[in-house]
Amino acid sequence: MKTMSNTLIGTHVLRCVHCGTIQDKVDRLFRCSECSELLEVIYPDWAEATPESSVRLKKLWQERRLSTAAEDVSGVWRYRELLPRVEPHNIVTMSEGNTPVVLLKKAARSLRLPHLLVKHQGMNPTGSFKDTGISAAISMAKAEGFSWVGCASTGNTSASVAAYAAHAEMKSLVFLPAGQVSSGKLAQALEYGATVVQLRTDFDGCLKLLHEVVQRFPAYLLNSVNPYRLEGQKTVAFELMEQLNWSVPDHVIVPGGNLGNSSALGKGFLEMLELGLISTVPKLSIIQAAGANPLVRTMRENGGKELIQVNAETRATAIRIGNPASWRKAVAVLKNTGGTAEEVSEEEISLAKAELGAEGIGCEPASATTLAGLKKLVRSGFVKTSESVVLVLTGHMLKDVDYMLKAVDYKAQGDRFLGPIEADAGAVVRTLERIYAGN
Ligand code: F0G
Predict the structure, then answer these.
(1) Regions in the chain scoring below 50 on pLDDT
(2) Is the CB of 153 under 6 A from ligand 1?
(3) Number of neighbours of residue 272 by Cβ within 10 angstroms
(4) First to last CA, the chain
(5) Do you find a cis peptide bond into 125, omega within 30 degrees of 0?
(6) How far is CA 240 from CA 237, 246, 282, 304, 323, in A?
(7) Is residue 318 lining ligand 1, measured as CB closer than 6 Å?
(8) For residues 160 and 126, what is the distance between their CA atoms, to the nearest angstrom?
(9) Is the minimum distance from the CB of 337 to ligand 1 under 6 angstroms?
(10) Contact status, residue 321 vs residue 6, Cβ threshold 8 Å
């Protein structure tokens, strides 16, 4: 295996996203010592990047695909030159990333788009995009000697945190809004061995409480306010560009909840631009449920200056968030990539999800906001019919089975959800012939 010394890597520092202060040391909440805003990871040594170093990086990452070393197989740590340095024995990985890019044929036809793809992050080890970020941040926790990690969650983060903690032989504490997490995600957290605390509040209340608790209980905070989470999640942009043979799509569309993921993807693309790995960035657009639309309102009503909080309500429970922590980062990504924020109704989400399903592409409701949003963006002319689009699907279809069975009345479709009828071949064939005669 090659060493990192012939490429770009340097040490990282943490900088405030608001006042720009470089932090001497970080507190447990990862907040700026001057103004209490969020921090981001930056790499001062990258100033020395040259065209040759970007060519070298692409080649090195390509070569690693032939390696069987855990840190090369990981779709996060394969790109470690652009990540905070972690000693190999502290890297916690379960081969996260490595997710497929798939063509959407029917939707492309009906929207008249030449090139419509999904990047399916639901194909991660615990079934959501969270695994890339958790791999990065929990590795930092391990390096710092923590034995407990903690998160507040609408479900997916908790599943991921619980799994990675178990894998690393650490303990996990998760705060969930009682009664508002899909049973599949709750079952995951329990099965992976987390200590699960259901709280009589919403996600925003859970996160606020966790902030208080980690100052009194020695758990390492793994929500996306932790800037190392975003470092893991930004690698999706690198992997996508490799899969597209470094041909930059015109648009990338992601769902928005706490706004960590959109911030991370934007960071990934902008860093590749800075390093000369790509020469332009896609417009990165963020879609929220209309009932949980703080970013959309913030952009619409004050151009991104002040966050407008909302009381969130949506059946896409993963993104039922009214006070998104990373809103400043997301606003910067919209501005720096030329993307937009859009909202979609419950009906639009449910229809888009069924349409994806009918193409053989399962995802959870929050992920389907991307297709629903794309339809609106095509109608408004923001996405032109000559342009290429990648939708980022964030969670696996089986995360929220109840949603599907409630959203679509399969019985009413009459001809493809049959029975109960007698378990008798004659009866079955007669039924099929009656329905499909002539087809
Ligand atoms: N899609 C899914 C499936 C999610 O689980 C989430 C967030 C998002 C999109 C939004 O991503 O918060 O980075 O803007 N889920 C978090 C959780 C909040 O706790 O699992 P975001």
Answers:
(1) 1-6
(2) yes
(3) 22
(4) 57
(5) no
(6) 5, 8, 12, 28, 29
(7) yes
(8) 6
(9) no
(10) no
Task: Please indicate whether residue 255, judged by its CB atom, sits closer than 6 Å to ligand 1.
Answer: yes
pLDDT at 235: 98
Residues near 401 by Cβ (< 8 Å), separated by ≥ 6? 182, 184
Find all residues with CB under 8 Å of 120, minimum gap 6, and list them.
99, 100, 101, 102, 361, 363, 393
Tens of pLDDT, residue by residue over 262-315, are 999 999 999 999 999 999 999 999 999 999 999 999 999 999 999 999 999 999
Helix (H, G, I), strand (E, B) or coil at 301: helix
pLDDT at res. 4 = 39
pTM for the whole thing?
Answer: 0.95
DSSP 21: P
| Among protein residues, the one whose CA lies closest to atom 15 of ligand 1 | 318
Tokens representing 389 are 């689009």
Write the pLDDT tens digit of every residue in 110-152.
999 999 999 999 999 999 999 999 999 999 999 999 999 999 9
